[in-house]
């Protein structure tokens, strides 16, 4: 895509939203022609340790321009608050490759397991991975809700809670989310979400450790079985 854009406009600036993709492949977008990459520290690069923050990386001159936009021209990234989170950011970044490995393994296991149960997954369990996200087409709203209930039950935080669909701003259908996370919104931790509309596919991501991620997937299947939405 980058080469196609540059063949038309050599001056084009290419920025890639790299959320969910960091450390999954051997190379990052800036190594194949992107000028800038951006992402969230409560996803892959924060290693489930950082509680807030984001990053911009790439061409020095463009990063500098972005920093002027964030603060003021001349001061740029030389000023700004870190919310006493520097230790968490650096420790999380150090641990991130191993945490992402666990998330990818959890995703592959989920796709393989639900494929054996007869469900269609995207990507397939044996497809090349470019991010930590997987989608599983569950077919019915009840199956979707049962799956999310199991994911929540397998979470280390708020495992007693039961996710319910609700009218979320910006969506034209009800949405259900399961995320018993130490950091709210940290989708490097095992989580699932879906709009309640056909084909009733759930988006799954995260897993700080493979054993805990695998447990969450098995509990999701068990919840579907107990609710009569899974036939073995």
Describe the structure.
This protein has two domains: 2-88, Aspartate Aminotransferase, domain 2; 97-226, Methioning gamme-lyase, C-terminal domain (Aspartate Aminotransferase, domain 1, Alpha-Beta Complex). α3 (86-116) crosses α5 (210-226) and α4 (141-153) packs across α5. The chain is an alpha+beta fold and 232 residues long. The protein is globular. 34% of the residues lie in helices and 15% in strands. It contains five helices and eight strands. It has helices at 2-8, 60-70, 86-116, 141-153, 210-226; strands at residues 15-17, 36-40, 54-58, 120-122, 134-137, 175-178, 191-195, 201-205. The model has no long low-confidence stretch (mean pLDDT 96). The strands form two sheets. Strands 4-5-8-7-6 form a five-stranded antiparallel β-sheet, with helices on one face.
Keywords:
2 domains, 3-stranded mixed β-sheet, Aspartate Aminotransferase, domain 1, 15% strand, alpha+beta, Aspartate Aminotransferase, domain 2, 5-stranded antiparallel β-sheet, 232 residues, globular
- Low-pLDDT stretches: none
CATH architecture of the largest domain: Alpha-Beta Complex
What's the CATH topology name of the largest domain? Aspartate Aminotransferase, domain 1
Give the N-to-C terminal Cα separation: 43 Å
Name the CATH superfamily classification of the largest domain. Answer: Methioning gamme-lyase, C-terminal domain
Pattern of helices and strands: HEEEHHEEHEEEH
- Tell me the structural class: alpha+beta
**Strand order of the biggest β-sheet:** 4-5-8-7-6
Query: What is the helix fraction of residues, given as a range?
Result: 25-40%
